[in-house]
Amino acid sequence: xxxxxxxxxxxxxxxxxxxxxxxxxxxxxxxxxxxxxxxxxxxxxxxxxxxxxxxxxxxxxxxxxxxxxxxxxxxxxxxxxxxxxxxxxxxxxxxxxxxxxxxxxxxxxxxxxxxxxxxxxxxxxxxxxxxxxxxxxxxxxxxxxxxxxxxxxxxxxxxxxxxxxxxxxxxxxxxxxxxxxxxxxxxxxxxxxxxxxxxxxxxxxxxxxxxxxxxxxxxxxxxxxxxxxxxxxxxxxxxxxxxxxxxxxxxxxxxxxxxxxxxxxxxxxxxxxxxxxxxxxxxxxxxxxxxxxxxxxxxxxxxxxxxxxxxxxxxxxxxxxxxxxxxxxxxxxxxxxxxxxxxxxxxxxxxxxxxxxxxxxxxxxxxxxxxxxxxxxxxxxxxxxxxxxxxxxxxxxxxxxxxxxxx
Length: 407
Known about the structure:
By secondary structure, the chain is an alpha+beta fold. It folds into three domains: 2-194, no CATH class; 206-316, CATH 2.40.50.140; 320-406, no CATH class. The chain has helices at residues 2-15, 17-27, 32-44, 80-94, 100-106, 114-123, 133-156, 183-194, 207-210, 218-224, 272-278, 313-320, 335-344, 379-384, 401-406; strands at 48-50, 62-65, 68-70, 236-250, 254-261, 264-270, 287-297, 302-312, 321-329, 347-351, 353-359, 362-367, 390-397. A five-stranded mixed β-barrel has the order 4-5-6-8-7. A four-stranded mixed beta sheet has the order 12-11-9-13. The protein has a three-stranded mixed beta sheet with strand order 1-3-2, covered by helices on one side. Strand 2 and strand 3 form a beta hairpin. 31% of the residues are buried.
């Protein structure tokens, strides 16, 4: 009987990959860790995962073609069955939702409160409306207020001057137009409701400078490691970066941490000496840079990096940065005050700030005084980009960690 089930499972997985994966995911939607494992397996098998969408998703995961599945609304934390049922039923009755205000006025808000709507926005289920997530979140109070007012007007039987029930709905308030959330904030909110980074990965935001530091992505590193019993001299010396996922400890002086990026996962091993020196860096959710030797581990049946050295993200950033470049065009009158406010929070480092300032046809390039050198941090450019007039803010990096350390 077991052999028959195994055969049927293998057959369905091979011949109906999307359908099989959607069914498997739907069966374990309430177990986030299982969902993440299945999604990782789906990606490795070339199956595309479309984000949740209030105009296309149902409660469960479903196949849209042979190699594509659509995320189920029921897998979004905080949404649940009653809310999904209300969304799908109204969509089937009245057609696709046109915008956030149309959605709020049509669905049964007794089943969808503000927290449910925030979860839908954070999961990307309302990206179909065309507005970014920051704008959608800002518009929620007005959308709910307008929907509540319309509901109360209907309950009161509001009529016009001639005693005829009004058939013309008040126009919705304009959608706020806010800058999109910083990538790291957008992804954190996404992870909070999905348990998975679907539209990107926090490491993606660091890709421009990580390329100057790491040997390759985690997925590529895993693919490079030859399978089978480890042979002396076959280890690959690599510098890698990733976000720390699940952690296992063996006694008081050994730990295993799974590193993750958009390309995949790789187990890292901190044995006695490495754990004693770098064990404090092993915190779930933190992004670190590690250097060590990678080989096949027979115990876990996969590649493993034996860590020799490790750096927190900011230290790795400081170690390599050569400067902070800004490009400014036609700034507002309070630009200098805004720039001073942001840079003041990061003063005290060794990173020079270079500025290209353009107003009309005239432009000038200058380097700020040494007293305005800053501590380099990947979060700094995104804060500078919020200043009106700043078109570019980027950290410029140099050699890789091992090369720099050897110099």
